[in-house]
Amino acid sequence: MDQLLALDNEANLATRDRFIHDLSAHKQSGLAWVKSHIREINEWVDNDGVALLRGLNIVSTNQFSSILEAIFGEPLSQYVYRSSPRTALRNNVYTTTEYHADQVILQHNENAYSNCWPMRMGFFCVVPAKTGGNTPLADSREVYRKLPHALRDKFENLGVMYVRNYGDIDLPWQEVFQTQSKEEVEAYCWKNDIIFEWKSDNHLQTKQIRPAVATHPQTKEKVWFNQAHLFHCSSIDNQMPESMRESIGLDRLPRNAYFGDGTEISAEDIATINEVYESVTFAYQWQRNDIMLLDNMLYTHGREAYTGTRKVLVGMAKAAY
């Protein structure tokens, strides 16, 4: 099975060579070339959902942010209602998720757990890892089509409830909401249909019910668009000892996911979802100065474990609701 899966992924990768745009022959600065080819670049992303710009001359983080703003046609978005640790740089450019190098980050559409997400994302490889560290991709339309219909229909009918507990183990609410004010947190929750409860003076719990499936606004195709498999308690099995989970209690885990009616999602269902993701996932080997542009609804992204130093930055824009 693993051998067949590997062969299938190799075939998938071969058919996606069109996503790579080798621009190394252009000697002008990356920003200058981009400004003269904005329409062409956006057509690549509109048509394919992915565009890997390779060989551009980029000399700074500021130049990367200017490139993305030129392509997206607007300033980059601030990353609020966070789910992972990052470092903010200038002009709303961020490091990618700062989990330890030995951890794999599963496939996901950015902010699919929220009622507001970026339609466009741009990644910039400053330093490729010594081994691994690539950013795998998966077509959200293929995930939707390949899931067992009974499971897919159940998620589509019920949606997903995301439950988060802040501060004890996971990110503190101050970092997630980018404020020190409880009043501002509560205002954000009211505005964004997030149920909140202060369990103690500094312990916040939130619940938010979101669809599991979305329709892309341009292509009108259905996409699998949720993070149930990332939030589900089974995803932390390798990160938290069973004894610790039992002592904390299910209701106080850093995060968990349920069906939208509050019923439990089985670990077997999550395993099935992860298997489908694995069957359609592919990756390109990062090279220094690569810029990868994504339609965040059409394609998921993740991260391989890696060795050595790795620095990949990200910027987001074009908010959707």
From TrEMBL:
Signal peptide: none annotated. The keyword Cell membrane does not apply. GO terms for biological process: antibiotic biosynthetic process. Its cofactor is Fe(2+). Residues 36-316 form the TauD/TfdA-like domain. One of its GO terms (molecular function) is 2-oxoglutarate-dependent dioxygenase activity. SUPFAM superfamilies: Clavaminate synthase-like. The keyword Oxidoreductase applies. Keywords: Antibiotic biosynthesis, Dioxygenase, Oxidoreductase. This is Taurine catabolism dioxygenase TauD/TfdA.
